[in-house]
Amino acid sequence: MKPLRIALSKGRIFNETIPLLAKAGITPVGDPDSSRSLIIKSNQPGVELLIVRSSDVATYVQYGGADVGIVGKDSLLEHGGEGLLEPLDLNIARCRLMVCGHPGTQLDEPQHRFRVATKYPAIARAHFASKARQVEVIKLYGSMELAPLAGLSDLIVDVVDSGATLEANGLVPLELIAEISSRLIVNRASLKTRQQPIANLIDKLGPKD
Ligand code: AMP
């Protein structure tokens, strides 16, 4: 029997997921921090962790490269969620997806076509379209805060936690798009073929009352 594969990204989500998995009796074998291996075995022969980029987790699960995944709602919204089930809010890596820019920016200036830099182009387009605002979206892969400072864009769409990075760069949050936390996602076919281990995992990671 193939092991159950759980896709997740290193960094914040990985660090906050490890204690949750430990409560479910799953611990990585070896030191995942120093390991360069992209498939990490666990103490349970039936469970492996796949290390992928945060923006690739939903794609791995969609196409069955992993049975389940742990992914930020931001990445899930950007992906679109096609072929995926989202049975559980893990309530970890909480932050907010926001429109940010220079202090005093008026988002509802009529006729103004804003330039928006973001690593979430689909979310940004949908958000501004829902407000009937004209925008030009510029895709970036990192350091979004630099874009308004360099005159590349008027606005950015990014995740915000404490707001310290924005503040350090003279920017402010202007509008909330979505409250973000990490979700357990499941491949639709895996839910049928691996029903028992997946149901167990959902049960063990879910809220305890
Ligand atoms: P990253 O690997 O930096 O793209 O982050 C992975 C995920 O962690 C993102 O998709 C978000 O859901 C979440 N995240 C990113 N930045 C923060 C933050 N400042 N606070 C809390 N969660 C965050």
Verbal overview:
With 209 residues, this protein is an alpha/beta fold. It folds into two domains: 4-93 and 181-205, Periplasmic binding protein-like II (D-Maltodextrin-Binding Protein, domain 2, 3-Layer(aba) Sandwich), CATH 3.40.190; 95-177, D-Maltodextrin-Binding Protein, domain 2 (3-Layer(aba) Sandwich), CATH 3.40.190. The chain is 29% helix and 30% strand. The protein contains eight helices and eleven strands. It has helices at residues 12-23, 57-62, 73-79, 121-130, 146-149, 164-168, 188-193, 195-205, and strands spanning 4-8, 39-41, 47-51, 68-72, 84-89, 95-101, 114-118, 135-139, 155-160, 172-180, 182-187. Strands 2-3-1-4-11-5 form a six-stranded mixed β-sheet. Strand 2 (39-41) and strand 3 form a beta hairpin. The chain starts with a strand and ends with a helix. Adenosine monophosphate (AMP) is lined by residues 9, 11-13, 54, 72, 74-75, 93, 95, 159, 161, 180.
Instruction: Report the CATH topology name of the largest domain.
Output: D-Maltodextrin-Binding Protein, domain 2
| Poorly predicted ranges | none
CATH homologous superfamily (4th level) name of the largest domain: Periplasmic binding protein-like II
The secondary structure category is alpha/beta
Count of the separate structural domains:
2
Task: Count the beta strands.
Answer: 11
Strand content: 25-35%
Broad shape:
elongated
Count of helix runs: 8
How far apart are the termini? 33 Å
Ligands bound, unique: adenosine monophosphate
Known CATH architecture of the largest domain: 3-Layer(aba) Sandwich
Helix content: 25-40%
| Arithmetic mean pLDDT | 96
